[in-house]
Amino acid sequence: MKRTPISPQFMYTKETYYNMTKYTLKTLIAFLILCQVAAYGDDASTNVSSSGSAPTDVEAKQILEKATAQEAQFSTYFCESEQERTDGINKIHPAKTKLSIFKKRNADGQIFQRIETEVTIQKPPISIKSLEIVNSDGSWRVNDKVAILEAYKAKESDDIFSAAANAGLTGPLSNDNPPTYDKTEKQVDGKACYAIREHFSDKAISQWKEMIKKTTGNDPQDNYTPVFREYIIGKEDSIIYGVAMYSVTGDAMTKQTWSTVKFNPPLDEEMFRIPNKLRKLTANSAQEERDLLKQSK
Question: Which of these, 8, 138, 200, 260, is most buried using a 10 Å CB contact count?
């Protein structure tokens, strides 16, 4: 898992954008599944360490529990963000990302999703749009010509659970490895918020490293080893406006903030259906999906 240095002459293409994110997503998927987390965010200091045996701020934990319980009760949900990205490669190639997520909870408990993403690179000028739909048939990658059923995603999840079980590992945030919590207060876009930090125990971090070693065959680098997660929660409305996962180096591994959050807005059923005009294909691997997308252009 070596990272290739990026020079100022590096040319930013759609294929490059995908390859840059692939390692992070692949490396984090085990942690995200086993911890059952989402990703949002704000900044942190460098040289971060876990909280060890630091006592938990009980009120901080209660604030987070109230916010997550409220979010879990939606029948429909919408959130949107539009952010300038200047971190990592974006220091050389500034990018603007617009992300819109629509969710609908069905009577059987199944949650449908529609995720619209647009990334605009300034130099060279590139606009990358993507659409993902999750419905009763599974997860789909959609463009103006085809809809690709991502059959491999369910398999990857199963493989990770199996590998962790075979390794004798419990989830990094299981009852055996509880995190600790603390809080501060801050203004975010003029809104009074709590910043709740969930610090992973040394044991949880050690198990995360062991799990990645067993599932990928490689040691996770410090900048891909999580030590705490920070939630941004409105003081008045208890809405989660952001969450970020931070590594040992203090870098944000996953990061997102929401400028708009709405519970139970009216959503059209058609949003979660695949248009009949599109050709439906099935991908059994990420590489097959990339090949099918290229062929559809």
Answer: 200
